[in-house]
Structures are given as structure tokens and as C-alpha cells.
Fold these 2 entries.
Entry 1:
Amino acid sequence: MQIKSVNGGFTLIEMVIAIAILGLLAAVAYGPVKTYMARAKEKTTIANMQSIKQAIEAYHTDTGYYPQTLKDLIRRPLDEEAAEGWRGKDAYLDLRGRKDIPKDGWDMKFVYRLNEEDAEKPYEFHSYGPTGKRAPKSEWLFA
């Protein structure tokens, strides 16, 4: 009785071709995926900024003051006059289980500063964007 030998599997050339095709597909998909991720981070940042900006304005309406820092939106203000109108931790900003103010899409804190009383706007509020603090002002995101 003779036993037939059956060679199963792939040859080396077949494996190389399959890996090359997969590499080519990954290279073609990388650009659009990277662009999509950048846009998603920017949209997340702007959405978070709009929520925080609404919270700042609601705080101002309730207390008559703009918050000294963004933390004032989630903790009782130290200033007693402002604290009288403050409605509580969850009244201004939905933290959705977080313990702190949301960050931008690149996991950096937003920039919030009160301006002088005679300034055009009462406060500055922006994100430095993907480049961070070294970004030129033209790359900053505003809501």
C-alpha cells in the first residue's frame, strides 16, 4: 500500500505577495483615516468649547460675575457674592462622570482668562489646537 503525500499550505512567493497586498491596502487607507481622526478631534474640541462657553454665560447670568477659572463652574466660588447665585456643581456643565473640566481633542486644557474690565471681550477662551502652546495664533481654535 502506498501513501500519497499531500503538500498543503502556501509557498513563500504566495506569502510575500499576500503581505505586499495587505501593506499596499494599509498604505492607501492611512491618509484618509489620519485626516478623519484630525477632523474628529477638531470637532470634539469645538463641541466641548461651545458647552463650556454656554456654562460660562449661565454662570455669569446667575452670579453677575464671570468665573475666575473654569474650575468655578464645577466648584463653589471662593468669592461670597458670586457663591450666593451659584446653582451647584452640575448646574452649569454636564461632566458625564468626569471629575474635571473636559479637555480639547488633543487632551490639553483649554485656555481661559478674564480680561480687564475695559476690554472688548470679558474673557479669552480657546484651544491651542494640535500643535499645543507653541502653535501660532492662526492655529488656535475659538468657539
Entry 2:
Amino acid sequence: MIDIKFLRENPDAVRENIRKKFQDAKLPLVDEAIRLDAEKRAAQQECEQLKAARNKLSKANGPLYGQLKKADEAQKSELQKQTDENNAKVKADVAWPMAQPALDAYGYPLSGEHVYEDDDAGVWFYASPTLVVRIDRFFDQEAVLTWYEVQIYCDLNAERVGSILYNPQKPQSKHVQAALIAKQNQTVWGMNTDYYTYRVGRKTITGMVIRNGQVFYDRVPEANRHQFPNLDTLAMLEDGSWHVFHSDEHTAQEYLDMGAVDVFSFGPYLIRDGEINPFLAEMTNGLTPQPRCAIGMVEPGHYFAALAEGRIRNVSVGVSVAQMAEWMQKGGCTEALNLDGGQTAVMTFMGKQISRIGKYDGGKTSARATTEIIGVGRSDLIDPNAK
């Protein structure tokens, strides 16, 4: 396979090599490849410019909301107009599995909460004026593989995907089921995190751990270590943008300075700037099919997550890290991180666990207890005291 950078910089050498092999019919492909590469790079540049403009508008709304609270009636109209123009609401381009109510221009319902659950069909759906979530379960009989794909669309002025702690005052004091954390916080959608407390308990390098703007741990390994996980990071910024980094790429203060609210460490990172991590080809771990999960950003306000069940006979064997990376890229992610898998990998909807856990430790099938989840949305339709 010819490296595209080499082709871009040395087209004549490539053409000459083709002629030496008497494959002149392939000569037009050189120009075609160069043209397509130029179009791809131009599209990527335009995409980055649009994301930067979007982020700038999202940040601009913060001060305006502060002014709006203090403004008199004469000023409120103009300030509201400015915030509407800067609105960071991403278009919810998703199929409804139920009757559609009246929607706004972005595809969100004008009022109310709309919930659909069909465990047999493997479809879960939630929509409100600020949040739309759709979960689909898939099954590949030939590969014996079951997995979930999640599309999340939200109004960044009202919603944020991020860490939800069981006990914010003592965040590492007690481990419970992820579903309990989701239920007590009335969380619409949730999944597991990086399970950093496992490394804390074993007194190994923890990686960069920041929750709600508070630095928990900042001891990191060198980038691309072959020990699994390599502790690459995903930084969730206050403006709704997400970025993945090598384990040692930034200090804790640098993360805070860039606006990070949460930083998760597990890895490897799967997608960066829309491209699959080249380090995956060198990895000696993460090659076998296992229960795995990942989360990523398509654009600020639009997020994608995937979870593969595993260790369940005739239902699902799991996936490799490389296959998870392909899923995340296919899902449109520009940034994505591999999170803890195995018995930790779990997904919740409306305060209930919807994914299944394969056998481990001699036959257990319950999710590993945790201190936190990643989640979004709050709904009064969820009874926090339900048994």
C-alpha cells in the first residue's frame, strides 16, 4: 500500500514505478488519488473551521446569560435575541420509533418528555426540548455478536454529557451498581467510565483523573506504553467539545486551562481528528474479542457511544479494540476513547440497566460496582426511590 503523503509529495516517482511494472492502465489512478486526497483535506479543514466557529458562539453565550439575569425588561429582548443567534443546539437527525409530536427547527419536541422502550426489539428512545437520545441493539448471528449504538443530541445551553458521581462529597468512598447511580440521579442515559478506582486500589499509575473541574489524580505514564490500558485521555470541555490526548500530553493545569470539566483515562484513544489511532496496529493487547465500550464526539452537542456484550454463549463473544475503533469512526466520531470493558461495561436508560454482563469469576453475571457513571439528562419520570 502506498502512503498517501509519499504519493502527494512524489507523484512522478510513483508513476515511474507503475511504468516499470508495465501497469500503465493504473497511471490515471495517481491523479485521481491526489485529487481525492486534496478534496478530503479541504473538507477536513472546512470542518475544523466550522467547529471552531461553533465553539466560539457557544462560549459567547455564557456571559450573555449572566447579563440576561440582571437585565431590565428593555434589555432582555436584545440579549435574548443574541443568545438565540448563538444557540449551540445541534440538529437531532434521528428516526423516531414513536409518533412524532410538534418539533422545533432542530428536531426537538416543543414540549414534554417522550419515552419509548422496547427491550425485545432492542430500541430505547428519549426526547425533550433539550435532549434526544436513541439506543439501538444489534445482533450479528454469524459473528455471534450483540452490541449497542447510542446517538445523543443536546442543546449545550441546557445539557452536558459528563461524570455523575454516587457521592460527590466522598467520590471514592463506596462502590455501587451503575443502575443505582443512574436511578438516584434520575439520569436519562448512562454508561460506565474508566474505573480509575481499580488502579487506585492496586496503587498503580492512575492516569489523569479530573471530575467536575477537580483534579483527583495526575500521575501519568509515558505515551503509547504497551501495558493495557495505556491511559490515553478524553477531555470533556465546558463548551461541549471533546478532545482525546496521549497519556502524557498535558498536565492537570493545562487541562483545566483549556476548560476541561471531566478527564477520563483508559485508552487507547480510538479516533483523533476523525482518524483511527495508528498505535492500534502496534498493540499486543486488546486483540481478543471481549466485552468493550467506547464514547466519542461527532461534533459539540452530538455524541456517539457503543458497547459490545461479551462472554455470553450463543449471544455475544465481544470485539477487539480495533473493531471498536472502526465502529466509532463509522458512527461519525471525530474524537473517541476506549473505556473500561469486561464486567465494567454497562449501559443504562431511564435509571435501569439495559445491557447484559457475561460470566466472570466462576459464573457471576452482575456488573462491576462503581463510584460513578458518564451520563446525560435528568427526568422526573424516573423514580429515584423505586425498588
